[in-house]
Amino acid sequence: MEYPVYETFHSWQGEGAHLGKSAFFIRLFGCPVHCPWCDSAGTWHPDYVPSEISKRDADSLVEEAKKSNSEFVVVTGGEPCIHDLGPLTEAIRNAGLKCHLETSGAFEIKGVFDWVTLSPKWQALPVQSALDEADEFKVIVEDEGSIERWVEEIGARIGSRPVWLHPEWSRREDRSVLKAITEYVKAHGAPFRAGVQAHKYYKADLFDKNSVSATPLGGDPSLGY
In what order do the strands lie in the sheet with 136-141? Predict the structure, then answer.
């Protein structure tokens, strides 16, 4: 089985419970969710899709990952769960590597993962099976009301698992968004935690020559999301 691969690179995990750990990223092509502030628009947006998409089998991806000597492999996208990830995760785990997933949760998770980060999106709400498998949640805070809306939507199904509250990147200096996150964490405590995409401040991913520069849409409706 071959997978459409947008990019592979060695960096460190910039978010969540594994922040700062050496990680090898496999970013798969394709996403039907189409977030207006997507920072990996090259995986789906017609204005940014590359002219050629590499097709690679699980074994070749695992061999590259092993050379990185990273702590774990992260399968991401786009939306990786539109693909059958079973053969890929089997190959990764058979090589003695840990395998993490980053997903919107909008599709059933096929494959066995050591860690699942679920970042729900309004454009395609998470399915129950994906919510059940999540080890942590990443909520993107677009405005002052984002947190309450997500708590109302999926709060009862989160339990004690960590919920990271991230300012949407184009609003990372918006005082109202930062205040909303701060006040919610202060008022509610666990499982809510203030989060940030630390790798973007470091520009860490771009130190690997194989990494593709981000193409953040920033919520711009003129881009036709």
Answer: 54-57, 2-12, 22-28, 72-76, 99-103, 115-118, 136-141, 163-167, 192-194
pTM of the complete model: 0.95
- Residue at 153 is within a domain: yes
Q: For residue 140, list its beta bridge partners.
A: 166
- Number of domains into which the chain is organized: 1
Does 225 fall in a domain? no
DSSP tag of 212: P
CATH of residue 173's domain is 3.20.20.70
Per DSSP, which regions of 109-214 are E strands?
115-118, 136-141, 163-167, 192-194
State the amino acid at position 138 in one-letter form: K
Strands 72-76 and 99-103: parallel
Name the residue among 160, 212, 173 with its Cα closest to residue 25. Answer: 212
Residue 78, preceding bond cis, omega within 30 degrees?
A: yes
Q: Walk along the chain (225 residues) and give the pLDDT tens digit of each residue.
A: 899 999 999 999 999 999 999 999 999 999 999 998 898 999 999 988 999 999 999 999 999 999 999 999 999 999 999 999 999 999 999 999 999 999 999 999 999 999 999 999 999 999 999 999 999 999 999 999 999 999 999 999 999 999 999 999 999 999 999 999 999 999 999 999 999 999 999 999 999 999 998 777 776 666 655
- Looking at the domain assignment, is residue 100 inside a domain? yes
